[in-house]
Every structure is written in C-alpha cells, then in structure tokens.
Design goal:
The protein is an alpha/beta fold and about 300 residues long. The chain folds into two domains: about 55 residues, no CATH class; about 250 residues, 3-Layer(aba) Sandwich (Rossmann fold). It is built from eleven helices and seven strands. A seven-stranded mixed sheet has the order 1-3-2-4-5-6-7. The radius of gyration is 20 Å and the shape is globular. The N and C termini lie far apart (about 45 Å).
Length: about 300
C-alpha cells in the first residue's frame, strides 16, 4: 500500500486527519495510534478531526530556510516520490505536496488546477511559488501556474518531470509518431540489453519475468482506468495547454515517453531549460535515480532566472 493510500485508510478507520510525513514508517494502519501518540497528537487529532475539511496542501518537510517546493504527484496519486525527493534535497528544503485525489468535483483539468491554486493562495507565506510535477502532476502544475498568475501571484519556478505535452501527440502525423516511438523503444532496448548482458542466466530469467509482469500490469491499468485515476486520464486526453510566457525546467528520460523535442512543450512555454536523465526501468523518481534528479532540481532552484 502506498503512503497516500495508507493515509486515507487511517483517516477513514479512525476519523482523524494525518499528514503523510507522520506515517512514513507505518507498515499497516494498525500502527496509527502508536505513531500519533509518539508525535503527541492522538488526543488533539480525535477532538479536532471534523472541525473542517482537510486541506489539499500537505506538509512533507515543514522546516528549512530555502523557499518551499510544492509537489504535484502523478496519476498514481502516491506521495512516495515526494518523500524520496524531499529526503534527497535535505532538511533545509521545505517540501509540500498537493493531494489532488481529494478534489472530487472537477470536470476538467483546468477546474482541478483551480482547486489546487485556491489551496495554495490560502497559504501566501509559502510563495512566491515554486511548483514541480511528475507525469500527470506536471499537467496540473502547469495549469496551476496559469491560475496563480491570473490571480496576481508570482510563480518563481516550474519543474516538469517526465511530462509529455498530450496535445503534441494529437497534432502530429502518424509518421512522426512512428519515428518517435521507435526512438523511445530503441532507448529501452539498449537499457534492457545492457542489464541482460551483465547478469547470470538465473538473474536474466528473473529480470525478464519481472519486466513482463510490470508490462502486463501497466497495460491493464492503461486499458481499464477507473475512479479518479480514470477521470484524470480522461482530462489529459482532451486538454490542450495554452501558451505561457514563462520559463520552465523540463526533465526528460529518453525511452520513457515518445521522444518528442522538448517533450512537446516548444511553442507553449516561452523559455525552456532541458535536462536529461538516463533511462531506468522504474522511472526517474526511483531510489536508484533520485540522486541524479536531486542534483538537477537543486541546480535549477538555485539558478538566477534573470
């Protein structure tokens, strides 16, 4: 069970409000009382749990002298990646995450982003805003950027990690898509071939079995998405980002998506900075790759946009 799913299960079972940062060490919801008591929050949370709706904005790392980073999780809605990146960035980097799964009434991606933007505007001390999104979370981060600026707020940084502009694909000829798809598969094949060459017969067999299971699981989820995840995927299929006169960091992993130039964001975002991370079987947010991503993100956060 992922961290965010665990938080939801605990809240439903005990009628309390938790932060994911409180339950990193949980192995099951049965440990909730012990964890809350350790933090001295058990009694307070029970007494105040239903005084108002839970905020969409959740603290991952509250403290630190650097400007806060606001994280938008991918369509899997888990906070694992935020927790991993926060740990890599260190105790001086505050990180907050938006729990987009709590937004139930949105019928478009723009409406979802408006809910997220409104939640951020309730916490003006966390601005000027530095937003980062992974996969679907990148779409929401981009639209939230536009919402915040329309409300008069300043967005200082925007980071899009493994975020392919969905409108780019819809606008391309089939021949372009075929060429970019082949480039994507070629990068994947090169990686897998390298893993297989370096292994033993047994490790090769186990690796192939593991990757086949992951492929089938991913395809089944893509074919039959349901619930909030299904709605989010439906949003992205019709969403077309409007041009934005700002600067963003694009983090690309060749082999993960269609190999579109600048992930399809040319002509949409005025100024792009692009960084490339090497392909890895479980993506750029995996523990084995987080140090690379941390260096890229830290460098961008520290640069002078002027």
């Amino acid at each position: 069970m992922g961290h965010l799913q665990l938080v939801v299960a605990i809240e439903e079972e005990f009628g309390i409000r938790l932060d994911p940062s409180d339950v990193v060490e949980l192995e099951s919801y049965l440990d909730a009382e012990a964890i809350l008591k350790k933090h001295g929050r058990w009694k307070d949370d029970i007494e105040t749990a239903k005084t108002g709706p839970a905020s969409l904005l959740v603290p991952i790392q509250r403290l630190g002298s650097r400007p806060p980073l606001i994280w938008f999780p991918g369509h899997d809605r888990l906070f694992n990646s935020a927790l991993r990146l926060s740990a890599a960035l260190g105790e001086d980097q505050p990180v907050w995450a938006l729990d987009i799964m709590r937004v139930r009434g949105a019928s478009t991606l723009e409406e979802l982003a408006a809910e997220c933007g409104a939640a951020l505007l309730e916490q003006p001390a966390l601005g000027p805003w530095r937003l980062a999104g992974h996969c679907f979370g990148g779409y929401v981060a981009f639209e939230t950027t536009r919402f915040l600026e329309a409300a008069g707020a300043r967005v200082d940084r925007l980071i899009l990690i493994d975020v392919l502009n969905p409108a780019w694909r819809r606008e391309q000829k089939w021949s372009t898509i075929a060429a970019e798809r082949w480039s994507e598969y070629r990068a994947r094949l090169a990686y897998h071939a390298g893993v297989l060459r370096s292994g033993t017969n047994r490790s090769r067999w186990l690796y192939l079995r593991e990757r086949a299971a992951a492929f089938l699981k991913g395809r089944s989820e893509d074919l039959v998405p349901s619930g909030v995840v299904g709605r989010h995927r439906a949003f992205s299929k019709i969403w077309k980002p409007r041009p934005w006169n700002g600067q963003a960091l694009i983090v690309r992993e060749p082999g993960r998506r269609l190999d579109a130039p600048a992930m399809g964001w040319n002509g949409v975002i005025r100024e792009l900075r692009e960084e490339v991370v090497p392909f890895y079987q479980t993506g750029p947010m995996a523990g084995e790759r987080i140090a690379i991503l941390k260096d890229i993100v830290e460098k961008y956060l520290d640069h002078d946009p002027a």
